Amino acid sequence: MATTECESIYTVKCVHGTRPPCSCACPMNLSLREFMAKATRRNPDSAYRVLANELVFPEIITRLCEGACAGSCAENIDIHALERSVIGYASQKAPMRFSVAPKDKKVAVVGAGIAGMMCAQRLAVRGFPVTVFDKDSEIGGTLSAVIPRDDYMAEFELQLMYAPYDFRGNTEITSLDELSDFDAVFIATGADGSDFGLKDGWNEKSMATARNACCLGGEITGASKISAAAQGRIAGYTIEKYLLMSESMSGVETSFIQTECLFEAKNSGAVSVPHEDGFDKISLREEATRCRQCDCTACYDGCSFMQQMKQYPADMEAITRTIPVRDVALGQREGSRMAFSCAVCGHCGSVCPQGISVEEMFMGAKRNLFDLNAFPPQIHGYYIADMNEANGPAHLLKKAEGAKYLFFPGCQAAESGAEHVKKAYEYLNKNCGETGIWLGCCGIPSLWAGDKKLFAEQLDKLKNEWSSAWKPTVVMMCPTCMKTFKKYLPEIETVSLYELMEDKGVDAPAMMNSDSAVFDACAAREFPKMQNAVRLIAQKCGAKLTELDPNGDKSLCCGNGGHIYTANKKVWTGMNGLAGELSDKPYITYCENCRNSFLMNGKDCCHILDLAFGTEPLKAPPHIDELRESRRALKAYFEGKCGETEEKSLKIDISAELYDKLDRRLISVKDIEKVIADGEETHRRVRLDGDEHYMGHMQIGYYTLWAEYRKLGEGEYELLSAYSHKMTILEGK
Asked: What pTM does this model have?
């Protein structure tokens, strides 16, 4: 098996699936989620089985119940009345019988009250020879003070029918030496009984004592009857573990009781209505249906990725850890597809009460897959090519010796926010002194592609260029760039453009007088000063702001992280939709990617610099061919050149609808030109249903591009359709 960075445990502290408040309040820690789910069914027998399995003597325990769960239920459900009603309606109460090999280790239980009988039942059904001693003539102890004798004796008889034990009544144990023939002992002599000197050194979690092979529990410890029952059950676990696995009682912490809920379950404010007479069958199901199955779902609720995968972090880690074996060796794709589909935005960690994030887990998986040559280039090839374009033909470092600031707008701003970049640069030179300009990419596409070597090369290049420019403070316009610099290039001092603008002042026209909401980019979560500056600028421009929920340090992702658009468009659509539906008000963004993503899905939004500089907001994201041209033209602008326009060898008519479809498929018109030109030159094309109607194809990089077109005249064509395939066509010789 290949080694993987995913072998470390990321989710060990995840509290999803831990006990809800009601179960934590219950001395028996009853699995109330499962009970409630089964109580909604027409047949109450399955709900009764939950009670019988965990309470052991449900008829007795529910009568001893003090209703501790009632005050902790977020919906104020009458849980105790539900339990009593289920017991009353259940028709199949006989315990299950299992074939268990008899054990040769003998156990003595001193005291036949509820604690002693809970322990005896636990061990007897597992094949241990159990002898119960009591100074009275029958089992039950002091239960007769609270429950009619016939009722509890009938319950004992029912639940112990397959748990044989030897009862020795009228037998008072006065010394533990009398039990020397037994391999383990549980002392449960009741409130007035003897503890045989075992209270000193008693472990209240496991019921173990300082004396080897001896446990103590029940009312002798000061417990109530319901807590005594729980202690008897715990003692059964401890003794079983000791007899099967250990030579001493030290370290036998087998308590399954969890008293502290590890997550918050907000109360709905529902009014509790007592049901002293229980429920009829219809009302029983209706009451159980009100249970909302309280659990920690903070990460899942705000993540379209997890929702689409139908997985929580711990489940995801279990799958991700198998990637090297299952996905690569066996050709199955569940784990790798999951890794490719995560936007690695960190939202999960921002809302998790334990701070658990799957971001680093999936980044480790991506790096491992890349090293195994199992990261398909179809997923990241477009973005790597875009990065190489930004750091190649469109790259510019225009230094200003002695300048305090160097402006790094980021590759996406250069593509779809060229006017913002120009005006921001003018602003900085006017208000902050002479400023340099640095056009390029921070290298994040290589990180998201799992290419450690390429990412390291990008970081080295950035560091060297910054050093050559006399190490100024870098002014960041893009939150993702700022996050990348802070984490991977901490030696470079950075400041956001928006903080400088808020500090120096903005002489902006009041372009907005309607309600709107600032959408915080996921990469800006750790930059509260940036977030606040954007809001102050927006308000100065006349915006009336309403805060989204969540926002700030818990903001959602627009879906542009991690290359998920090409990996799993369904997740991208869901993530963008979830973020866009936080409010029906127009959004103000300060990330060009966020703005473009929302515009692509029809969300009304603008960039904060549209307000600050009075530029016309985009109505739709630019076409991908326009992006490259914009980036190169911006470089030419800062170089004082007019910008070179590439001559088009072909004239191709494309409908607006098809043009948008090409953008969504990340198909460049320039690549379409190559396919048509190749088909016309080599005649490697297929004639379709009419004259001059063809289908051509061509291998371009990591995919094969198909173009259906009609020839209109010399050098003139109409594009009818186009699509790409993750395939290579082997041409015959």
From this structure: 0.84
